[in-house]
Amino acid sequence: MTQSTDRKSSTLPSFPGTSFIGQEEEQAVLEVLRRGELFRYHGNKEHPSKCDLLEQHFAKHTGASHVLAVTSGTAALICALQGIGVGPGDEVIVPAYTWLATAAAVLAVNGIPIVAEVDESLTLDPADVEAKITPYTKAIIVVHMRGAPSQMDELLAITKRHGLKLIEDTAQANGGSYRGRRLGALGDAGCFSLQLSKIITAGEGGILITSDDNVWKRALMFHDVPGGERQGITKDEILWGINFRMPELLAAVALAQLGKLESILTNLRARKQMLKGGMEEVAQRKGITFRAIPDAEGDTGATLIFFAPDAAQADQIARKLQEANIGAGLMYHPDRSDYHVYAHWLPVMEQRTWTEAGGPWRWAQRDIQYHKEMCPRSLGLLGRAINMNIDPLMSNDEMEELIEGVNQVLDQI
Ligand SMILES: Cc1ncc(COP(=O)(O)O)c(C=O)c1O
């Protein structure tokens, strides 16, 4: 397996998947180009399409019965929402901490996003989810943020108790697991992103998984107009769809990357453990605590997040780490826009609409109001949180240098 040639000389940010791009991806792309088989349904039938292969390998990887390759994580979310039947006025609970796309996908199918608190795991707080359920709630989107699993036992029990659907937004946690099962495969549907910053990447792209035949049929029809017919859905049954089909070139890269996922995860986990272990003593002295991980064995290791005693100290630590050339960032500041935190989702918070006649909120079945302070615990936690992305290719010497640098900063606080 090869890795990108000289990552240190690159000015581009290095993410787990991008650090591992090499000959396998290059050969796979050339194969598609040389065969002239750029479109999934047009080519020499002796060669299975790259999209087909990706779906087959991803089914093995996750244990899901059905896999659908699409154009982005957002497309996967929209197909999943169509798949479970979310429509105008249906409420869908989303976490206060997730990329805006999770809430925007709900709006795209005319649903109403309802924002719930995250807890020390920085994933959905089951108690607040339950408090936010109304007669109009249809589903919950659980987001496994920054590579770590959510509290799936509790969240699945809530959906069962209330007869709701559960979608797992696994965009940032490909390869993670919960009690031995791959993330994305525990709910009614799981959605993955292959965008540049993700654990494996094709620059862009998305994947939907489900083991529910009906969700699968509906998602399939929506992602490709004749796609349903190709899979044997009759003309009488078929619904209109749009085009979220994955291109072959993209699938070729994704497939090569999927082959590297386990070694990327091994590298990430080892380095995260080393960093956390190396910081523990200073952290304890300074009142710093680490993010709670619901099932530590299922953590991808993609990030290490810790909480400073207060927001001012967190800001100071993040600043000093950056001055020391250490990749770290404060996770929420009221004055610094970041679409990962609901308080900065201005288009949603202010219910901005694409037409003067109104947007999805016109179908809301009760008065919906959002405001920036509506999830204070999430803002409090994120305002004290510092995120460090783990570099899967750091050498032991570089890791030791990193730990020394972090500890020096923490010791000054
Ligand atoms: C949590 C989360 N959900 C959804 C998405 C959307 O994925 P994409 O950018 O592939 O549409 C992202 C990606 O940035 C994400 O981080």
What do you see in this structure?
It contains 15 helices and 13 strands. With 413 residues, the chain is an alpha/beta fold. A seven-stranded mixed β-sheet has the order 1-9-8-5-4-2-3, with helices on both faces. A four-stranded antiparallel β-sheet has the order 10-11-13-12. Strand 2, helix 5 and strand 3 form a beta-alpha-beta unit. Helix 4 crosses helix 8. The longest helix has 25 residues. The two termini are 42 Å apart. The relative contact order is 0.15.
How would you concisely characterize the structure shown here?
With 413 residues, this protein is of the alpha/beta class. It has 15 helices and 13 strands. Helix 5 links the parallel strand 2 and strand 3.
* Strand/helix succession: HHHEHEHEHEHEEEEEHHHHEEHEHHEH
Sheet with the most strands? 7 strands, mixed
State the CATH architecture of the largest domain: 3-Layer(aba) Sandwich
Helix content: 25-40%
Low-pLDDT runs of 5+ residues are 4-10
Tell me the CATH topology of the largest domain.
Aspartate Aminotransferase, domain 2
Number of domains: 2
Radius of gyration over C-alpha positions, nearest whole angstrom: 22 Å
Mean model confidence by pLDDT = 95
CATH homologous superfamily of the largest domain? Type I PLP-dependent aspartate aminotransferase-like (Major domain)
End-to-end C-alpha gap: 42 Å
Give the CA-based shape: globular
The structure class reads alpha/beta
- Tell me what portion of residues adopts beta-strand conformation: 5-15%
Major sheet: order of its strands?
1-9-8-5-4-2-3
- Heteromolecules bound: pyridoxal-5'-phosphate
